[in-house]
């Protein structure tokens, strides 16, 4: 945890509250605070079944801080909450260790947390995790639908796997098929359990560097970002498009990793249901103008994030909408633009 810090942190762990020096924020012209909270869903059931707990905290950080960066904000500090039936120090240390490693990678300070024992409510080996983070962005730099324009290129950023969404579906599929977590799966090159516990990729630091990169800025800058979580690629992209604009995404531009096709085939899950639930190999989307594409792809690829052009934004009135293919307009209460996913995966 000592490595998951920033110079602005005041004091250490163990106090009733974590403290963070906000002097730099006070010098901003119009600082906008951004906050997010999340958990990792039923992925904890996989960690508990395998008695491996060093990755679930990494997932937690990714789910929280990567939501904050969508609006262009820099995540500053995070707190965590672990509820368990019985405190096993080694288990708690493994969970918190994962949280700390991810915070260090995301350049976020872990300023505190809470471990709560709930005997009689949770089983002795049961636990759940949640976290919250706060970030800041200059008002003039806020990313939102108002920046997205016709002609923008939709860049897909590869996920590391399932990340932390869709595990209720995945667990039901493997349970119905009778697959055990120690099963070797040739398509994965490892066991089923190892594949399912692959940590969520944490994009925050790389995306902040992308937003600030001089070559990207010279090309027009990043216009929008979308974190592909619950609801899948199409619905989450629709949340960051303004009404009247349309994004047409082409499946032929990428091949989903084996875990997605395997789950689909094993459970006879219709493709649209998979796409509404899982990220299908796309963990984040960036919307950039054409002149910024090469610089953006170069930076992200250099960071080890496979990035490719998967579509383009147009005015909905001018869009070549395929009437036979589902169109999603807005999502999660957002009145936004429309998105259509066409073609067949490569």
Description:
The structure is a single chain. The protein contains twelve helices and 15 strands. Helix 3 runs parallel beside helix 4 and helix 9 (232-238) crosses helix 11. The strands form four sheets. Strands 10-12-7-13-11-15-14 form a seven-stranded mixed β-sheet. It has a four-stranded mixed β-sheet with strand order 3-6-4-5, with helices on one face. A two-stranded antiparallel sheet has the order 1-2. It has 346 residues and is an alpha+beta fold. The protein is globular, with a radius of gyration of 20 Å.
Mean pLDDT: 95
Low-confidence stretches: none
Report the sheet with the most strands, covering strand number, pairing sense and barrel closure.
Answer: 7 strands, mixed
Give the spatial strand order of the biggest sheet.
Answer: 10-12-7-13-11-15-14
Cα distance, first to last residue? Answer: 42 Å
Number of strands: 15
Order of helices and strands: EEHEHHEHEEEHEEHHHEHEHHEHEEE
As a percent range, the share of helical residues equals 25-40%
- The coarse silhouette is globular
Strand content bin:
25-35%
